[in-house]
Each structure stands twice: as C-alpha cells, then as structure tokens.
Amino acid sequence: MEPMTLDAAAAAKKAEKIAYENNKLHKRLCRLVGQAIGDFNMIEDGDKVMVCLSGGKDSYGLLDILLTLRERAPIHFDIVAVNLDQKQPNFPEHVLPDYLAKIGVPFHIENQDTYSIVKRLIPEGKTTCSLCSRLRRGILYRVADELGATKIALGHHRDDILETFFLNMFFGSKLKGMPPKLQSDDGRHVVIRPLAYVKEIDMERYAQVKQFPIIPCDLCGSQENLQRKQIKAMLREWEKKHPGRVENIFSSLSTVVPSHLMDRDLFGFADLKAEGIASKDGDIAFDEEPCAPPSSVIRFGATPQDPDEQD
Ligand code: SF4
C-alpha cells in the first residue's frame, strides 16, 4: 500500500474529527430529546405522533431524532409526518414528499390555500402572521383528528421557549413561556415539544450535518416578528458575554417558587399565618437572598451524559 502523503493524512485526520463531532452532536440531541420526553411523559405506549413538518431545520431535526429514538424505545409508538402546503408563492411542493418517501416515513400533505385568505383579509403592509398561524392551527388540529393522532409534535426548541418567555414578560406583563406539553386550545389534543431542551445552534449544526432539504421560511413575504428578533439578539449577546446566564434562566423555568413571587392565585398570601416551624424557604428579612447553586438542564432527568458528548 502506498504511504499517505502529509496532506492526505491531515485530511483524513480532519474528516475523522468531523465525524467524531457529528456523532457527539447526534448523541447529545438524542439524549436531550429523550430526557424531555421522559420528564414530561410526552409519548406513551400506543401513541400516534403527528410530527408537523414545515420544511425548516427544526422540524426536520425533530422528525429525524424521533425516528432514532423510536428504534431504541421500550414502547411502541407510530409517527406520521404532516406538512401543510399553504400555497405560498414558489413553495417547492415536491421537496417534502420526495424526502419523506426516501426515508420511508408515512406522511400526509394537506393542501389548503391559506395564503390567499390571508392576503385577502389583511391590508397590505400589515403583519399577516397572526391570522396565518390561527388558520394553520385549526387545519392541523382537524388533520390530527382525521389521522387519529394522539399527540401533535412541534419543532420548538429551547431558544423558542426562552424568547417566548421574554416576549410575554416584556410585552405582555406575564411570566409565561412555551410549555413542553400542553392541551391544545380547543381542548381536543395534546401538543408536545420534544426539542424543549435543545439549543437552536445545535439544530442549525444538525441540519447542516444531515443536509436536510430546507425550504426557506420567507416565501410568504412577511417580516419576522421584530420584537422576537430583538429578544433573540439579546439572548445571543448574553450567551456570548455572560456564559451560563441563559442556561440558568432556562433552568429557572422549572424551579418556580410561588411564595416568592406576587401571584395571589398561586400562593395563599391572604391566609398566611406564622406556624412556628422554621423553614429554609421562609423570609430572611433584611439579609440578601443567597444565590441558588447554579444548575443545568441535566438536573431535569436522570439520563446520564455520555462522556463522548462533553464539549
Ligand atoms: S411568516 Fe408567513 S407563513 Fe409564517 S406565519 Fe407569518 S404569514 Fe404565515
């Protein structure tokens, strides 16, 4: 066998490193998605999970990881991929059916021209997203019924959850995020977000690694929500300048202390009496609140991190 040239050896080493990193990413995604599913009991034996596929990186990644996890799961559940073709101009309608047929996943494409409805009803220059998503939601719920789906899986990730949390706080005066699992607003379905613990940056990298045939999301010509854009930039800046801050905010969403907030529906302030029993959660009057020990997302579940996954 010919000895390798220096260039070839360097290229082989680089390829090996890339393969190692990609494998690590895949393991991390599977672990975090498995953990979120377990923590919130998102998928149960016999479920039929309808994965909503938009053609964006997140929904492709969600489907891909769920397919991997299904192979390893001790329970049986079915997956059906659903795309709503809203008839936006230049929507490449063959891309998703080709992809889904290639990977052998049962799928349904729902053709509904919501684009024309939105264009007809919303005056030029006004934002169309709210009506568009309302129409989409109604259609997807109907399709879930028709397909007999027991869960509707959406591709929202950790960053979507955090952005929604800050949007609600900054512009809606509410401590309210985007839940990993919730009943739909019509009360008929259970919506799940298995990517709840996954960072957007990991979904971006995963989409590149897997070379998903991404369909651009701006075909309708609508602008991305400016407020969400600003929040996203704020979080990215914090992530860069203050490592750990965003992680801690995210962890805090699952460690809520109602007695230390001000929602009278969540805590019975009116009936509060001194019980004569010392409590570490009691008020410490003038002392400064000690910082809680830093926590990380691993706290949510018992799935151990594979040493191969360490960054
Ligand atoms: S960006 Fe376009 S397709 Fe997406 S919700 Fe807004 S109007 Fe609908």
TrEMBL record:
Location, primary (coarse class): cytoplasm
EC number assigned by the record: 2.8.1.-
tRNA-binding is among the record's keywords: yes
Keywords carried by this UniProt record: 4Fe-4S, ATP-binding, Cytoplasm, Iron, Iron-sulfur, Magnesium, Metal-binding, Nucleotide-binding, RNA-binding, Transferase, tRNA processing, tRNA-binding
Region (Disordered): 284-311
tRNA(Ile)-lysidine/2-thiocytidine synthase N-terminal domain: residues covered: 48-215
SUPFAM superfamilies xref list: Adenine nucleotide alpha hydrolases-like
Gene3D superfamilies: HUPs (3.40.50.620)
Reactions it catalyzes: cytidine(32) in tRNA + S-sulfanyl-L-cysteinyl-[cysteine desulfurase] + AH2 + ATP = 2-thiocytidine(32) in tRNA + L-cysteinyl-[cysteine desulfurase] + A + AMP + diphosphate + H(+)
GO cellular component: cytoplasm
Signal peptide bounds: none
Cofactor note: Binds 1 [4Fe-4S] cluster per subunit. The cluster is chelated by three Cys residues, the fourth Fe has a free coordination site that may bind a sulfur atom transferred from the persulfide of IscS.
Recorded superkingdom: Bacteria
PP-loop motif, short sequence motif: residues: 54-59
Pathway named in the protein's UniProt entry: tRNA modification
Cofactor(s) needed by this chain: [4Fe-4S] cluster; Mg(2+)
Family: Belongs to the TtcA family.
Self-association and partners: Homodimer.
Protein name: tRNA-cytidine(32) 2-sulfurtransferase
Organism: Noviherbaspirillum galbum
Lineage of source species: Bacteria, Pseudomonadati, Pseudomonadota, Betaproteobacteria, Burkholderiales
